[in-house]
UniProtKB/TrEMBL annotation:
This is Metal-binding protein. The lineage of its organism: Bacteria, Pseudomonadati, Pseudomonadota, Alphaproteobacteria, Rhodobacterales. Residues 380-647 form the RACo C-terminal domain. InterPro entries: 2Fe-2S_ferredoxin-like_sf, 2Fe-2S_ferredoxin-type, ATPase_NBD, Beta-grasp_dom_sf, Corrinoid_activation_enz, Raco-like_middle, Raco-like_middle_sf, RACo_C. GO terms for molecular function: iron-sulfur cluster binding. Gene3D superfamilies: 3.10.20.30, 3.10.20.880, Domain of unknown function (DUF4445). It comes from the Bacteria. Residues 120-210 form the RACo linker region domain. Residues 215-373 form the RACo-like middle region domain.
Length: 673
């Protein structure tokens, strides 16, 4: 008579096992995704399964009610204390007696699925580097003398298949009391290092520890630092927060900071100290927001551009400011948090820094690639991470290219006359009536438009205009005929709008006037237009370079990444000429894809291996030394573009073609004079 057949769902894995084999043992031997922290001792309840009874035609088996061993005292004790869904069994206690179908519910799977909703839904398989394990250690024996740590190592090897475990002195100091208090059982927080590094014990507790362990996924940008506090057991985001990068005081763009380091001895040390202190403060604040102990943070994952990468690590970035833009290292890094002087997290916390792609294309771009997976795309996708330094990816399953483009901080509200960071009171949406030339707008923190009843009371003081607001304002001015294709604002006489005011030798457009109540006059100036033109031209030129390199004239799909990218209107971005012409429904937002990539790397060791392999296959195009960049940049100065026809856009939007000159007269008159 053959051994009983066991079929696991949803995996479909099956095998025959001797009568009396525990379900958990069968699952492990078949490689079924069934969790267990306590090692099968009936303590953790992670291995709950749902047996199925009756006829299963699909599998060709009929399962009897007595296919598993009877409910036992361990299961009854667990159910009476903590409760358990009717019909479920503990896989470590239930034994196989005859053919059976076993379902592993989602909460019992190790690789729990976290769904990320942005451009497309995608699953993140939980496979964290740090996890907790319950270990039963043999008691000391005078006849077989060995140290407690050596017996812990042996127990980890026998019970969990973990080899070559390391622990620092602080763990060794606490090991003996913990073992004796826990009755020779301890729970360890074990960190699997990258590649050939030996696993390390980061913490330990007497007996069975069920408390949470946390990780931080940090997107270290040149303007802002964003962090996600995640539960390392299931990947849930418990809190998200951010703050301004204090290095802004040394320069708003990356090259300004490199220049600061070049011109000021010790300037790099100063910037490193500032950013590390900010990260430490952010870690403490986000833990407080989530109501967790910051000492429960055992892992941090960083994504950042190359200059931020070097300054975080305490490496002078001067070589990144001059050709050939050499990185000190582009490989991924595994460090102790204390190496970065981070004290707000657990003293044993580990840091993983994603690999950089090249001297101007950093770990943040690698994180975007990890999140958006252009190498798996059937169609040609352009991914743009919009920020102070735009990271651009172009490709499909055949080939992926990358470059960075120095857009500057205008898209984030900097270098704009009434610009500000995104905050309550900032104008974020703008519409201008093409007939009357009158504007209406929305501000952050209020769902009403400025011409809706009750707007003034609901919106509060209007303080300025943020990046998405200035983009929409410029695009709307172009569609309303207030701005010509070269980016010049017309006079009141030329445009028919008294909102176009003289401003020296140029003109400005009055968007909002609160001066009567002591508030600001918010204008879009000619200088603002120029700043946006420079930024969008750099972005478009970088994308065009990649298209040249791959040999295509159009892309199939555009993905706007970055927190800022999530708030850009695709129509306005296209009118402005920020991105190549595609049907508007093919312009998608991925939100903060770099931050998502950091979360994926925090959740999965396999994902770290995958991105480390992918960065070697991404071809880097260096915009700084590419002669065609300037040619593309100049052509992209026009709104939307000097030579590209933009057929998809023009099928949807009518763009007037006025021609103004800087002195306020018409182009025709200026030429005659």
């Amino acid at each position: 008579m053959s051994d009983p057949l066991v079929i696991f769902t949803p995996s479909g894995k099956r095998g025959r096992f001797p009568v009396g084999t525990p379900v958990l043992t069968a699952a492990r031997q078949l490689g079924v995704d069934l969790d267990s922290v306590c090692g099968g001792r009936g303590i953790c309840s992670k291995c709950q399964v749902q047996p199925g009874f009756g006829e299963f035609a699909k599998h060709g088996v009929t399962v009897a009610r007595d296919a598993l061993s009877d409910w036992n005292a361990v299961e009854e004790r667990y159910r009476s204390k903590r409760g358990m869904i009717d019909g479920r069994r503990l896989g470590c206690q239930a034994q196989i007696l005859s053919d059976v179908v076993i379902d592993v519910p989602p909460e019992s799977q190790v690789h729990k699925q976290v769904i990320r909703k942005s451009a497309a839904e995608r699953e993140i398989a939980m496979d964290p580097a740090t996890r907790t394990l319950l270990v039963e250690v043999a008691e000391p024996d005078m006849h077989e003398p060995s140290g407690d740590f050596e017996r812990l190592q042996a127990a980890l090897r026998e019970q969990w298949g973990v080899e070559r475990v390391e622990a620092d002195l602080s763990i060794l100091r606490r090991l003996q009391p913990a073992l004796r208090k826990g009755g020779w059982k301890v729970t360890v927080a074990l960190h699997r290092g990258n590649h050939d590094a030996a696993p390390r014990i980061l913490d330990l507790w007497p007996g069975f520890f069920e408390g949470p362990i946390h990780g931080l996924a940090i997107d270290l940008g040149s303007t802002t630092i964003a962090a996600h506090l995640c539960d390392l057991r299931d990947g849930r985001v418990l809190a998200s927060s951010g703050l301004m990068n204090p290095q802004i005081r040394f320069g708003e763009d990356l090259m300004s900071r490199v220049s600061y380091a070049m011109m000021n001895p010790g300037g790099d040390v100063e910037m490193t100290r500032a950013v590390r202190e900010a990260i430490d403060r952010l870690a403490a604040e986000i833990a407080a927001e989530a109501g967790v102990d910051p000492a429960s943070i055992y892992e941090l994952v960083f994504v950042c551009n190359p200059v931020m990468h070097h300054l975080l690590l305490g490496i002078d970035p001067v070589e990144l400011g001059q050709a050939p833009f050499a990185l000190a290292t582009g490989s991924s890094l595994s460090l102790d948090a204390r190496d970065l002087e981070l004290s707000a997290v657990n003293p044993a916390a580990q840091v993983y820094v994603l690999p950089c792609i090249a001297g101007h294309v950093g770990a943040d771009c690698a994180a975007v690639a990890l999140a958006e997976e252009p190498q798996k795309s059937k169609d040609m996708v352009l991914i743009v991470d919009v920020g102070t330094n735009a990271e651009i990816l172009l490709g499909n399953e055949a080939r992926v290219l990358a470059c960075s483009s120095p857009t500057g901080p205008a898209f984030e509200g900097a270098q704009i006359s009434s610009g500000q960071r995104a905050a309550p009171g900032a104008i974020e949406r703008v519409e201008i009536d093409a007939a009357t030339k009158e504007p209406r707008f929305r501000v952050i923190g209020c769902d009403l438009w400025s011409d809706d009843p009750g707007f003034a009371e609901a919106a509060g003081p209007i303080t300025g205009i943020c990046g998405s607001g200035i983009i929409e304002a410029v695009a709307e001015m172009r569609m309303a005929g207030l701005l010509d294709a070269r980016g010049l604002i017309g006079s009141a006489e030329q445009t028919g709008s008294p909102r176009c005011e003289p401003d020296g030798r140029t003109h400005s457009y009055l968007l909002h006037d609160a001066s009567a109540a002591g508030g600001p006059r918010i204008l879009v100036t000619q200088g603002d237009i120029r700043a946006i033109q420079l930024a969008k031209s750099a972005l478009y030129a970088g994308a065009q370079l990649l298209m040249d390199e791959i040999g295509i004239e159009k892309v199939d799909r555009v993905v706007l990444a970055g927190a800022f990218g999530a708030h850009i209107s695709p129509k306005h971005a296209m009118v402005l000429g920020m991105i190549p012409d595609v049907p508007l429904e093919k312009v998608l937002s991925a939100g903060n894809a770099a931050g998502t990539g950091a979360r994926i790397a925090l959740a999965s060791v396999a994902a770290r291996d995958a991105i480390e392999e992918l960065v070697h296959r991404i071809h880097k195009v260096e915009t700084a030394i590419e002669p065609r960049f300037q040619e593309h940049f100049v052509a992209a100065n026009a709104i939307p573009h000097a030579t590209a026809p933009f057929p998809c856009l023009r099928a949807l939007v009518s763009l007037p073609e006025p021609a103004f000159n800087s002195g306020g007269g018409s182009e025709r008159r200026r030429r005659r004079g």
